[in-house]
Amino acid sequence: FAGKTYRFRVSNVGISTSVNIRIQGHSLLLVEVEGSHTMQNTYSSLDVHLGQSYSFLVTTDQPPQDYTIVVSTRFTNPVLTNTAMLHYSNSNGVPAALPPPPGPTIEIDWSLNQARSIRWNLTASGPRPNPQGSYHYGQVNTTRTMRLANSRVTINGKLRYAVNSVSFVPADTPLKVADFYNIQGVFTPGSMPDALSGGPAYLQTAVMASNMRDYVEVVFENAEGSVQSWHIDGYAFWVVGMDGGQWTPASRQNYNLRDAIARYTLQVYPSAWTAIYMPLDNVGMWNVRSESWGRQYLGQQFYLRVYSPANSWRDENPIPKNALLCGRASGRRTRPL
């Protein structure tokens, strides 16, 4: 209907490719990213990387015609495109006289600058009792820095992908179950290093050890020629910085410590880095993985073990009574209640 404002929520649920969305003759007013209210910036198009979700408002304030909605792949050759129609109820099927909206350039800088422009709305609250900005993430001292470098490697003559030279292989028992029952030999806490060592790549059921209440800085480094997309189960985090080239401690001088967006999925551009701040306030065994399914399957993932010695139901719910116990946990009991 003409004169209305509609909310679009767009999610990239693909397995390998970033996409760009745009609507002929209309602007996109960004309002939400993965559960966070954003500053309401206006864009002509939006890049949506693997696993990411965006909400934007579109106002039907143009002449009553039919307008093309275009979605195209980013950083691919060839560029694949699909279209839909934004139909004004009183258009009588008349196509818009405007040219179809062109896609963005293939330059990385365009996408990088757009990503940097997405900011947290510090005064919005939604269902929260306090505004989002009540938590001053930039004023908390980090207790640890993790540097995670993805790579394409060959192990035993086969293509694999790795993080800090470790290519993940699944264990014969779910890691959280093995941790709960203290089953030895399934995984080793600390088998995922904090930084790239420079040694040859190898296979490992990689688990990074960490402690409840730590406040960590994680730097994702991408020396490859394709955009990487990462997801961390169980956590939201603040994307405090991203840039091209090599990350150094001096890169912290350009961090956004005031209104960086809090989200669950991040992108790392080719020959670039992305840094996040994350409070480890959720006990468990959490998967950190590439959102590219091929890379994830061939080893670009690991688990983050967030440990608390308190073993309290305050920090973590007990194992469900109906939990399926397999592998080396077969035959064990869950709990009486």
Automatic annotation (TrEMBL):
Which Pfam families does its entry note? Cu-oxidase, Cu-oxidase_2
UniProt cross-references to Gene3D superfamilies, sorted A to Z? Cupredoxins - blue copper proteins (2.60.40.420)
Q: Which InterPro entries match?
A: Cu-oxidase_2nd (IPR001117), Cu-oxidase_C (IPR011706), Cu-oxidase_fam (IPR045087), Cupredoxin (IPR008972)
Q: What is this protein called?
A: Plastocyanin-like domain-containing protein
Origin superkingdom: Eukaryota
Q: Which residues belong to any copy of the Plastocyanin-like domain?
A: 2-91, 173-309
The family note in this entry says: Belongs to the multicopper oxidase family.
What is the originating organism of this protein?
Aegilops tauschii subsp. strangulata (Goatgrass)
**Per its record, what are the GO molecular function terms?**
copper ion binding; oxidoreductase activity
